[in-house]
Amino acid sequence: MIEIVSASRCIQCNQCVSVCPTRVFDRGADGIPVIARQSDCQTCFMCELYCPADALYVAPQAEGAMPVSEAELAEAGLLGGYREKVGWGKGRRPVASRDDLVRLSRRAGV
Predict the structure, then answer these.
(1) Residue limits of the 4Fe-4S ferredoxin-type domain (predicted)?
(2) What stretches of 1-110 show up as alpha helix (H) in DSSP?
(3) Could you give the domains of the chain?
């Protein structure tokens, strides 16, 4: 489930708003997307994949997830972490094997 939109990293491209199949986001008054309908999130990771600034965090397991802070996620390298694992973004290569990615997707229910 989508957990965080980092205002400090967001470049206001609104790609997440455009690609979300369940319209979880609204464009904020300041241009930064707002998580408006979090319970509609299907944990498909599309928003995180398309975010060019790694400003989003989608928790792979929504059920029973612990609250997280942006600082903890940034320190752990998890903001945009799924995007990195699949190798999306200029100069990136997948750090996970195809089998790992299939397992991640299944675990997330995708």
Answers:
(1) 1-30, 31-61
(2) 15-19, 46-50, 70-76, 81-86, 98-108
(3) 2-60+70-108 (3.30.70.20)
